[in-house]
Amino acid sequence: MRPTLPATALVVLLLAAYAVGVVRHRQWPWWRTVVYVASVLVLWWCLDGTPAVLRSQEPLWGVAGIGAANAVVGFGVVLGAPLRLLERALGRPVRWLHSGVVQALTNPLAVALLNTFALIGIFDGGWFAGARADDASWFGLILVCAALGFLNNLQLLTLDFAPPGRSPTGWMVVAMVSALINQAPGVVVAAFVNTAWGGLLWAMMQPVVITTLTISFLDWFRRERIHTARVDAALDALEAEGVDPTKPWWERPNQKPPA
After folding, report:
1. For residue 9, is it within any domain?
2. What's the confidence (pLDDT) of residue 243?
3. What pTM was estimated for this model as a whole?
4. Which own/partner contact pairs does 199-208 have at CB distance under 8 Å and 24+ positions apart?
5. What's the structural domain count of the chain?
6. What is the pLDDT of residues 7-30, one digit of tens each?
7. Is 242 within a domain?
8. Which range of residues forms the domain containing residue 85?
9. What is residue 207's three-state secondary structure?
10. Cβ contacts of residue 210 below 8 Å, gap of 6+?
């Protein structure tokens, strides 16, 4: 590690703000705190650790830093749920976080495309080359990658900020398409920029993609099970009233059309 003032100050600020929220909301799950702290430490490693120290001599270390910031840090910070913690600590929802504009800007498919084009542009457009020689450029590059990774996972892993009327099956399809889009940066960089860089970028994305799909599948399964239980309860109630639920509503006496 080669600690710098900007990176160290940022890490202290992120950890301190989270700690205040945890203190104010004492029932906060401990595992979210562990994941968040670990993710912020990985961010510090990307900014001041081996990737930062060796990026000029060994480009693969720079690629590892970018991949870790985009995939690992973004994913981990979302699992740490700092926005949910903020709302719990305040005791009320932050309305603008749930606005239609924010939901549109953080749509998984839109952000996946933005993340894809940004990563390709970073390697093909010269930002990575410049950041290998300039500390300020490297600092900005890592923060951008981490922010894109955070937005890339926000709605898929923090359902509080997903559209309220979403279909469970449709949302699962969105998660699968988003996962496919997130394969593109590594593939394109490997094909047109540098095979080793793209291969490493692709490999670092896989654990996050698989975990996100697994969580999305479990949520889909849970919501479908809840829906099935509600339908079964409604059918049982009709049978208890002596109504045959297999008949359409217009053939049932005193039965109103479904809403």
Report:
1. yes
2. 66
3. 0.84
4. 200/60, 200/63, 200/64, 200/67, 201/63, 201/66, 201/67, 201/119, 204/64, 204/67, 204/68, 204/71, 204/72, 205/67, 205/70, 205/71, 207/71, 208/71, 208/72, 208/75, 208/153
5. 1
6. 999 999 999 999 999 998 888 999
7. no
8. 5-225
9. helix
10. none
